[in-house]
Amino acid sequence: MKLKSAILLTMGTALAAPMAMADGDMADSMTMVSWGGAYQLSQVRAYVEPYQAMNEGFEVLTDESSGEAVARLRAMNEAGNVTWDVVDVVAADAMRLCDEGLAIEIDADEMLAPAPDGTPASEDFGDLIVSDCFVPQIVYSTTFGYRTDVEAWGGREPDDICDVFDLVNFPGQRSLERRPIGNMEWALLCSGVAKDDIYDALETEEGIAQAFAMLDTIADSTVWWSSGADTPQLLADGEVVFGSTYNGRLFSLIEEQNQPVAMMWDAQVFDLDGWIIPEGLPADRLARALDFVRFATDTQRLADQSQYISYGPARASSAPLVGLHADLGIEMAPHMPTDPANAQNTFLFNYEWWADYRDDMDARFQAWLSQ
Q: Has residue 109 been placed in a domain?
């Protein structure tokens, strides 16, 4: 698939691209919405602090509500009071917001910085521009961490996604996200559906029932999480032995906190995260948002973020600049989900499918949870 090729190439970089100022007066403050935790901190260090250093007196307010971005922006738009300026969302949510007219369209070659060698932004981001309103920022994955000190496992360590559903060889509490994305795909994979047939199966009642039946087998041994910080904390506290979350959260737990936890990369679900700018901003706030996004997504800034968290930058020109962790001094490339050693068996998220079916599947998943 073209997207997989683009993702695996997205580990390349060059030099800092110049920032282009937006025309007209710009607001002196901005609300940046993201996901909190180590990820949002990496954005502050790589993007916000350098931008503020170049714009004296500029204030950035941060919000951690990206998980509710679609619902919140729908409500703001209805009320005619959009209070967010730049919002970090997953690709499928960007598609939904774009389709509903809740995010502005971005002309990549006009509004974003080119690569240092002059390559237009549209070519540098390539197939990762999956929506007219979406500016890709990072490639990440949702995968599993597990405790390495579980006596009941008899020295075994999980290395297959279906070990998540194996309570005999790997007993103990799990943690899974309180939404269908990822969980439904893994459940079908481990109930015998071929990888290429997953989304066709999810369009049938039989396929949906098959996924829920597989999830039923571990439901009583599962803690359901809503925040990306939940699984790392549950693993650190020993309340779960196996849990899904974003690979960057697990990197922080393992490498920065030295917890007895390891990463299981099998069937990691690749996804994209990036910026949208809400529709309906006044001119001065829109100018500031565009200026910030241009700066924050240039070649150097995307490479800089990889110093703080193990997510692959979304520009091809950024990959060669991926180097050492800013604090730990360790090479970051081997910790990226896109590293060939980690990407031997990946699952490519179908953005279009989830953009079309998300609301319905969310409702069905929550109804299943409440049974």
A: yes
CA distance 158 to 171: 11
Q: Are residues 302 and 329 in the same domain?
A: yes
Identify the residue whose tokens are 């604090």. 327
Supply the range of the domain harboring residue 193.
Answer: 141-270+346-369
Tell me the three state secondary structure of residue 73. helix
54 with 172, same domain: the answer is no
Closest CA relative to residue 184, chosen from 201, 166, 167, 163:
201
- Using DSSP, state whether 361 is helix, strand or coil: helix
Say if strands 12-13 and 29-33 run parallel, antiparallel, or are unpaired. Answer: unpaired
Helices (H), the chain: 2-9, 37-43, 49-54, 69-79, 91-99, 108-111, 121-125, 183-189, 198-201, 205-216, 230-237, 247-251, 283-296, 299-305, 351-369
User: What are the b/e assignments for 257-296, b being 16+ CB within 10 Å?
Assistant: eebebebbbbbbbbbbbbbbbbbbbeeebbbbbbbbbbbb
Q: Which two tokens stand for residue 90?
A: 């997953």
Residues forming beta bridges with residue 142, ordered by sequence position: 246, 269
> 14-42 b/e with 16+ CB inside 10 Å = b?
beebebeebeeebbeebbbbbbbbbbbbb
148 and 197 in one domain? yes
Low-confidence ranges of the chain (pLDDT < 50): 1-24
DSSP bridge pairs for 167: none
Does any domain span residue 340? no
Check which CATH number belongs to the domain holding 80 and give it.
3.40.190.10
Residue 242 lies in a domain: yes
Residues 52, 83 within the same domain: yes
Residue 339 covered by a domain: no
Tokens 């936890």 locate to 261
Whole-number pLDDT of residue 104: 98
Structure tokens given for 80: 């005619």
Phi, psi values for residue 171, rounded to 5°: -70, 160
Q: How many distinct structural domains can be found in the chain?
A: 2
296 plus 188 within the same structural domain: no
